Amino acid sequence: MGLFDRFKKKQEPHYDSTNIQVNDLDVGFVFEYDLSTWVVDAIMEYDWGNNYFTREFQINNGSETRFLGIEEDDELEISFMEKVKVRKLQDDLTDTLISRQQPPKKITYKGITYHLEKEAPGYFHNITKGTEWEEFRSWDFEDETGEHLLCIEQWDEKEFEASIGKSVKPFEISNILPGED
Known about the structure:
It contains three helices and eleven strands; from the N terminus they run αβββββααββββββ.
């Protein structure tokens, strides 16, 4: 085999092309969810310690950007989230987080009451951009059904981000196709 022959060979995909699953998603992949077609723009990875990692995909449908979170613990857990301004959740939430270094036990937003489920320190990096790992802290909330989700992240002493969304079943993500080369 010549020096350049190995570059001519098409690399085998990391997934079964006859049965692409949501955890096979990659940049450029397209899928259907909630009567809309979404494209994966970027992949982020979270390191929660003890060799436990999760992934998040920045996705768009041409008019909106959302985030699809994938967590494989005992079973596959998928979240469909959108960014919201922290002050929209609660007027004094940022002040509370800075002064107490703890969120409230529950937050009511748009008629849904979210209860604090867990706090986790971790590290984040954008795989697509090749960024360095960045330390942060996360607080996860759920409503009583576990369907509606809220996440608050602290990136430095006074920088906070929030996102709301819902839990998604794997079968709700359909018609997954790889991106074009």
